[in-house]
Sequence to fold (279 residues):
Amino acid sequence: MDVFNVGDSILYCGDCHEVLSGFDRDSSTGVNVLDSIITDPPYGLSKVVRWGSFAGKRKRLHAKNRHDNNRRDKSWVSADIYQGIDWDDSAPDVTYLLDYGVPVMLFGGNYFSNLPPSRKWLVWYKGGSFKGMSFAELELCYCSFDGNARLITHVSEWNCGFYHTGTRGVKVHPTQKPVPVMQFCISELPKGSGSCILDPYMGSGSTGVAALELGRRFIGIERDRRYFDIACERLESAYRASRNRRLLFDNFDKTLDKTLDKTLPVKTLDKTLPVKTLF
Ligand SMILES: C[S@@+](CC[C@H](N)C(=O)[O-])C[C@H]1O[C@@H](n2cnc3c(N)ncnc32)[C@H](O)[C@@H]1O
Fold:
């Protein structure tokens, strides 16, 4: 099994049941100390969705719009991502994830009938362009912990799955989640959790990118080699970018401290801003 380390995060290429069987169930020891699970498992949609037909539609749209220079968006989703989908024939039983005793967030919660009742669901409204299309307008994320239900209003970066309208990279997985949506999920985890997040159905690694951008540790598992390689690349560049940002801000803070020390002594402030002038 291939393992890829990014900073202190770990990505495994393999079946999640096999990988997780090597983890401690109480998740309190070893390198795999996880305190939350956020995941987007297969929903078994291949029974109702003909993924291959999206590839044909996308190719036709691309041919039609190829020469339109007024189109803001030139970065097309590859047709290939809708081909050869062999992982979505059935939805797995995901209740085993609840046995870890950590907060669990589960996209596609409405496809799983055996989850315990919960007051807290996240509803992701994907935007008006999905209305009346063969794509869902909403996605539902089940939360295993208590709290108020919340609405995520981030408009999908991939308009109807065909082209990219955002700024956060091209679509490389047929059911790829936008990073801001995954960041919202992380922000909804109960206080005291979310320092190490597990995604056992990682796909292209959106949960991991969101986690790294927020300075959290991540453990990801993906069975399909194509998606695993993509996730490794995405996480590595997210890690580099957030490390560079940290370095930049650390240096900026130090420079700013020195400059402030020199130019704004408390005495000067006393002189130039007497309380009287404020009123
Ligand atoms: C719905 S997709 C996740 C997409 C992801 N949210 C993203 O943003 O790219 C589910 C993923 O789970 C993977 N998968 C399915 N069964 C698995 C298993 N038993 N172990 C590990 N990965 C699995 C599939 O290959 C697929 O990439």
Confidence is low (pLDDT under 50) at residues 69-76, 162-167. Residues 225-263 form the longest helix (39 residues).
